[in-house]
Amino acid sequence: MTRAIVLVLDSFGIGAAPDAENFGDAGADTLGHIAEACAASAERGPLQLPNLGRLGLFHAHRESTGAWAEGIVPPESTSGTYGHAREISSGKDTPSGHWEIAGVPVRFDWGYFSEPQNSFPAELLEALIREAELPGVLGNCHASGTEIIARLGEEHMQSGKPIVYTSADSVFQIAAHEDTFGLERLYRLCETARRLLEPYNIGRVIARPFNGDAAATFQRTANRRDYSVEPPSPTVLQRLCEAGGQVTAIGKIADIYAHCGISRSVKASGHDALFDATLDAMAADGDRTLIMTNFVDFDMVYGHRRDVAGYAAALEAFDARLPELLERLDDDDLLIITADHGCDPTWHGTDHTREHIPILALGAGLAPGSLGARDSFADIGQSLAYHFDLPPMDDGTSFLQEA
């Protein structure tokens, strides 16, 4: 039975990419700096990732950076095939990383709202307010989502004005209270914003619903929704569906690909729920199925919030559950564990970092050992095309074909 399981550890970079300096990220290293912080904490102790380590994570990191991660005792041998890949897409954002993973690098430049204050053009906000019949908007700045909700959430509830904000990514985010503003109304507002943003070439509009009664109790809910533009050419997901296969998208995968090439979408909130949904899909899905899961909390909850201890604990929790998945793999299955960009929790600011991503692979006839440095994330998409006997993608080199 030919299946593939792709687990995207959102933001789990393993060392600065060759062009990191162009992004202000020279020296960034999500895994390395987390390991360093853990090793320096007598109370916390070294980072413990035995299962990812056996698949070759620390070997891949060493090949990426030239040194073993601090405090790590690497296994004497690995059971997986490992490598590190650079990004050739123009940005370090979520859609670019995921599309390149699926064989379609982003070679155009996204639009951005670069001004920290009064970030959005007046004519854009005026059109949004008019078409959505809003009393106005709040925010209009670069901000962390949790910070701006705490700062403006009460005013939003009193005034009915949604909170609009952005970041260094190509994104337009709208936060609103699920009860006082309404979830479906927020979704409709985001759809209007998506249409109005077409001339600006913005990658995503994100609905950020929250609940709670006051600043101290506000919490973002699990009903986030991303409105992405469609990939510029067919991804390996689309090609598999067109060839009669199935793609099961878990978490925010369907939104990232604008629901192109998705047979079934499974929503889940929190890493345990996402992991459970992945195991359920492995039990239910048959031949010629790609199961793809995004573990968003590494990025959203820990990376952007610069929570080193939380990121480390989440990695260890993921690692502890990994054997549940490994024991369910069939001989012909292909498992790939990877990431879409970095988000070094020790780095300045709150944005993504331009880093290599890990490629940890198991099954499908691969022998344990190093894949070395890969020239593009698209090597993953090309390998999936080879695995499913699809025509080659335009970009990438299959590491399965090299085996």
Automatic annotation (TrEMBL):
Mn(2+) 1 binds at D10, D340, H341. It is found in: Cytoplasm. Pathway: Carbohydrate degradation; 2-deoxy-D-ribose 1-phosphate degradation; D-glyceraldehyde 3-phosphate and acetaldehyde from 2-deoxy-alpha-D-ribose 1-phosphate: step 1/2. GO terms for biological process: 2-deoxyribose 1-phosphate catabolic process; 5-phosphoribose 1-diphosphate biosynthetic process; metabolic compound salvage; nucleotide metabolic process. Residues 3-390 form the Metalloenzyme domain. It is an enzyme of class 5 (isomerase). It catalyses: 2-deoxy-alpha-D-ribose 1-phosphate = 2-deoxy-D-ribose 5-phosphate; alpha-D-ribose 1-phosphate = D-ribose 5-phosphate. Binds 2 manganese ions. Its cofactor is Mn(2+). It comes from the Bacteria. Keywords: Cytoplasm, Isomerase, Manganese, Metal-binding. Its EC number is 5.4.2.7. This is Phosphopentomutase. It comes from Halomonas elongata (strain ATCC 33173 / DSM 2581 / NBRC 15536 / NCIMB 2198 / 1H9). The gene is deoB.
